[in-house]
Amino acid sequence: MSRAPVRAWVGLALLLGLGGLSLAAGRLFPEALAGTCPLGMDLQRPDRTVCELAFGGLWVSLAVGLTAGALSTLLGLGVAAVARLLGGAVEQAVLRGVDAVFALPDVLVVMVLQLAGQSLVDSGQGAGLGPFGLMVTSLALVGWAGPARMFRDRLLTLESQEYVAAARALGGGRAHVLRVHLWPALRPFVLAVFLSRLPTAILTESTVSFFGIARMEPMSLGRYLGTSYAALVYEGGSRVVLPAWGLLVLLVLGASLASQALTRGAGQAPRGR
């Protein structure tokens, strides 16, 4: 077995294993974490254990990453497909807009969107968005440009294949070629791009929550770290912070391994039809 599939399975096992256990223990059976915890009670929340807050918040961070990653991937795919279908000056204008959005600093833009969205929610104009929906929307609005660029470049590569040229020579239009010939070859790449957005979304959410701007409820890993890092000044405070950091690293590592492995596999030229 090659290294790429092994990395993909290891990454997926980390994501699914940690996420599933965290959801089961933190949401379905919370008493499992509220009972005996080898890390003891949280210093700032004496009524809750470190296991309950840290491990129980992992599934929230993963859910934010999965939802925001999927939404930004779909937005990017739609923009790239429309740009290639229209072509010409319209495509170039769309690409310039994509480059402009891609150049913006993700974390700062998400912070601004969070503050603006929270102001709307507080004034009763938030369209029913809670903390989770607001964070996912903010991440998707800043995260679609990268996938759009990758999908557009991938479509250009696929269009250079001989079977695509043959389809066009037989009278196939752009929409027909995209739907029948390009989309089947693009699907593995879509999954790889989605997984590549996952660690970015998780880290961005964690950073924004760490600075206390997001109001994630239930508490995500980022918000837990942001409200607990002061425990490091106390004796034994590392047992409060370091486990959450370790879980965040494992979460991002799993997504990165799976994404890199799938990207290599999807990057291989497809066979002719």
The portion of residues forming beta strands comes to under 5%
Task: Give the N-to-C terminal Cα separation.
Answer: 27 Å
CATH homologous superfamily grouping: MetI-like
Structural Rg: 22 Å
Number of domains: 1
CATH architecture: Orthogonal Bundle
The CATH topology, please? MetI-like fold
What percentage of residues falls in helices of 4 or more residues?
A: over 70%
Description:
The chain is mostly helical and 273 residues long. Helix content is 77%, strand content 0%. The protein has a single domain, classed as MetI-like fold (Orthogonal Bundle). The chain contains eleven helices and no strands. The longest helix has 37 residues, at 50-86. It is elongated and about 70 Å long. The model is unreliable at 268-273 (pLDDT under 50).
Topology readout:
Blueprint: H1 3-28, H2 31-34, H3 50-86, H4 88-102, H5 106-122, H6 131-143, H7 145-159, H8 162-169, H9 174-210, H10 221-228, H11 238-266
Helix pairs in contact: 1-3, 1-11, 3-4, 3-6, 3-7, 3-9, 3-10, 3-11, 4-7, 5-6, 5-9, 7-9, 8-9, 9-10, 9-11, 10-11
